[in-house]
Amino acid sequence: MEQIRFGILLKTIVLQCFITRSVLSIQKREWIDTPTARLTEGDVVCFSDYMEMWIHSVRIEGLGLWLSGALNIQVNMASLDHLNLQLSACAFSLHKDPDKNFIFRVSYTGCFVQQQHGYHVLTLNLVKRINRFGGRPHSFMMKCPLVSVLPSREQIQCDPEYIQVTRQVPYDNWDNELQWSLSLSDHLIVALEDASLIQMNIGMSGPDITVQGRRREVLSPVKVMENEGNFLALKLVSGQYAYSMEATCPKVTTSTAEKTVLHIFKRRMGLTKRGSRDNEALTVSNVSVNQTDNFTAHETSAFVTLIIPTAQILQTKTCAGSKRLLQPFYRVDVVLTFKQTNHKMQWTMENTLPCTAIPAASHITSSPGPNTTASSTLNFKHESLTTEQPLLDRLHQRAPLEEMTAEFPTTNSPHTQT
Fold first, then answer.
1. Per-residue pLDDT tens over the stretch 358-406
2. Which of 126, 145, 164 is the last residue of a domain?
3. Contact 261/306 with Cβ under 8 angstroms?
4. For residue 55, which of 104, 172, 313, 401 sits 20 to 30 Å off, Cα-Cα?
5. What element of type H or E holds 230?
6. pLDDT tens digits, 40-56
């Protein structure tokens, strides 16, 4: 009897082991054959200038074979830096995520991207290897809606105490409204209604959003090509999306120099990938200034620097509260075009300098020159910004941003006079 029981028990254990092994084998095969990153439209994230697709590491060999055949290049997944130099010719890029899977980015202006029925479409024919002798092709589609109007405008207003930045409220590629938060220096993140916690004011007016803060509370010093300025590292963030509200104010001075130096932060103006760590270099192809043709332009990896004769743009007005003082100010309207995107960046700076005594003889003019657009009245809220806890007190001790090395050759606009 004991032998019979032992035999039944042994058969039961063997049967359970066989069933468990079969289940695990099936699950493993299903995980390999149908990974969570099956390339369907739902796996494509659409941004303003590009689309991205998450690819499981078990599929990456198929993408490598497609890239090799389509672009006629040698693909080495072990050296992504070198591979991305090759892919940049077609406005593609490939990056690893924290789990060592892959993100494939395709610009809407990239190779093989077509416009079909209101969508940007790229079809990928990826080979799924069956054994070491062959594979089975699978066709996958990257697809994102066309965006007719990109929010490309930024208006910056600076005075000795405040900075104010106005941009259009962004929507996603399907014109859906997004729930935005503020991100200061990529560390402090608050909801829009809690902007006072990071010493900011928020205003909505029609299609525009305006952010405002005290210079000493929210700006960091930055040095570009031996010239100093103050930088606002602010973004709107929502889910996977980020939207730049970054801006630079000229350093506050009590006197006017012969030349005015302005720093424009280079970036894509629409929705971008939040927390993206790839350092995409944007290269300027054209610069135009509305107020004057007499300027020079230089670029670094992060900024475009404009040098304009001050007399071409500077105006004065009576200082508020004292008719015996004058307040210098200027407005500059710039259009930048980058090689990597079809969209232009429309950038406006209005800077108001400290009030000064009326000089006996001055080169400053009180009326615009022939090519000068008159500055609008600056609309700053000069009330005190209060919060329950001075979260930004420690930001006063932030070290200046490192000087940007001029990695790109000096760019002179076609309108530049040298």
1. 765 544 444 444 444 444 444 544 333 333 333 333 333 333 444 333 3
2. 145
3. yes
4. 172
5. strand 227-232
6. 444 899 999 999 998 88
Q: Are residues 294 and 197 part of one domain?
A: yes
Instruction: Report d(CA 54, CA 7) in Å as an integer.
Output: 51
Do 262 and 224 contact (CB within 8 A), yes or no?
Answer: no
Judge whether 28 lies within some domain.
no
- 138/94 Cα distance (integer angstroms): 20
SS3 category, 238: strand
Token pair recorded at residue 208: 């525009």
367: containing domain: 153-404
Pair 306, 194 in one domain: yes
Residue with tokens 């439209």: 41
Q: Rounded distance, CA 178 to CA 241, Å?
A: 9
Query: Is there a single domain that holds both residue 123 and residue 236?
Result: no
- The CA distance from 46 to 216, in Å, is 37
107 closest CA partner among 94, 85, 123, 90: 90
Residue 277, helix vs strand vs coil:
coil
The answer to whether residues 123 and 183 belong to one domain is: no
Locate tokens 């991305």: which residue? 84
Q: Which of 3-17, 30-44, 217-231, 398-412 has the highest mean pLDDT?
A: 217-231
Task: Report the candidate in 248, 287, 263, 291 with the shortest Cα–Cα distance to residue 156.
Answer: 248
Q: Beta-carbon neighbour count of residue 106 at 10 Å?
A: 24
Residues 388 and 341 in one domain: yes
Q: Tell me, yes or no, whether 135 and 235 share the same domain.
A: no
Domain's final residue, options 123, 145, 167: 145
